[in-house]
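Translate sequence into structure tokens.
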Amino acid sequence: MGRISKAGNRYLRRLLYLGAMAQISARRYRRPGDDWLWRMLQTKPIKVVAVALANRMARVVWALIRSGESYRATPSDKTRRPLPAGTEMVRRDVR
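Result follows.
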């Protein structure tokens, strides 16, 4: 994983990074999954994952702008698996 680039619009970079951190923060309160973000959080520091996620979001946004299409959520984005009976959500401190 590389470092965050200083090229481009500073404000836009910051918004992408903050959006990524918000998504990571929200993801940490849900149950473990096997998606890309969960696997990254298991192996990399949070800030490295945030930069990678911001990069990924920027690429998706650019592809949507270039093609003129609207964002279509994948089925995994729309559905959430219910917790098994008797299972509680574990809330961890976000720092």
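Note: The two ends are 22 Å apart (CA to CA).
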